[in-house]
Amino acid sequence: MTHLDYVAFGPHPDDVELFCGGLLAAGGERGHRVGVVDLTRGEMASRGTPETRAAETEAASRELGLVHRENLGLPDAGLRADDDRAAALVVDALRRLRPEIVVAPYWHERHPDHEAASALVTRALFLAGLRKYGDGEPHTPRQALFYPMRHLAEPSLVVDVSAVHARKMAAVRCYGSQVAARPDAPPTLVGSALSLSSLEARDAFYGARIGVAFGEPYVVRETLGLADPLDHFRRNQFGGKPLFFPERR
Ligand SMILES: [Zn+2]
Questions:
Q1: CA of 237 relative to ligand 1 center, distance in Å
Q2: Are 188 and 47 contacting, i.e. CB atoms less than 8 angstroms apart?
Q3: Model pTM greater than 0.85?
Q4: DSSP 16
Q5: Sequence-separated (6 or more) residues with CB below 8 Å from residue 161
Q6: How far is the CA of 48 from the centre of ligand 1 (A)?
Q7: What separation in Å is there between the alpha carbon of 113 and the centre of ligand 1?
Q8: pLDDT at residue number 1
Q9: How many C-beta atoms lie closer than 10 Å to residue 75's C-beta?
């Protein structure tokens, strides 16, 4: 396995599509090597089976242009950050895939697995850099980006995903067992009638904050630094006043 540029960790298959699919698809279009590590198979989901979910995941991975996807098979509804075996598996994935950027769930979340996934990946990011921990060459990515899911968080940055938004939504729709309208299936949040339109509204809202059609919010723990502000703002025009001067775009 050659090293990856991005690795996104998802608590359940479909989480990365919903909440950071645009970033991943955009990275792939730029020629970056993008991979996903799902922590569980979603076997506790009210709808679908792990088998249907696996086929849906494969289709969604193709849609996003991923070069790698794997599932660590950790227990759904039983993710815990203090699980040493789980931490070792995440460390192993980080050391094998050696991503420059790690993408993980934001730390405050509605679903306990999502919060646990955030803490588990954060713990593994630290352990993966320790020379004396486990086997394998230590690895510390350049940056971790955390994606908010169902809870609002003030983003540290918003990524413009307008050019790939149709592909993100197509990847989400690959999860027919989860998101399709099915009156016979048990009601779920992601399967509700407003699920996809609210996701689109959310991406449009964050896009509007930077003056583009669609954006995805990310949070970093650190203060972001710029080596060359002039260069940065030349390359990222929406860093300025896009809402007040839309005609410049
Ligand atoms: Zn989930």
A1: 34
A2: yes
A3: yes
A4: H
A5: 22, 23, 25, 26, 168, 203, 207, 214, 215, 216
A6: 14
A7: 7
A8: 63
A9: 15
Query: What are the structure tokens assigned to 153, written together?
Result: 């968080």
Assigned CATH topology for domain 6-248:
Rossmann fold (3.40.50)
Q: How far is CA 59 from the centre of its chain?
A: 17
Gap from CA of 119 to ligand 1 centroid (Å)? 14
For the chain, give percent helix, strand, coil, nearest 5.
Answer: 40, 15, 45
**Exposed, middle or buried by CB within 10 Å (0-12, 13-18, 19+), for 217?**
buried
Q: In 3-state terms, what secondary structure has residue 59?
A: helix
User: What pLDDT does residue 248 have?
Assistant: 47
Q: Tell me the CA end-to-end span of the chain in Å, nearest whole number.
A: 40
pLDDT in tens, 74-87: 999 999 999 999 99
Ranges of beta strands (E only) in 163-240 are 215-218
Give 157's Cβ-side CA count (13 Å radius): 17
Q: How many CB atoms lie within 10 A of CB 216?
A: 27
Rounded CA separation 165/162 (Å): 5
CA distance 237 to 98: 31
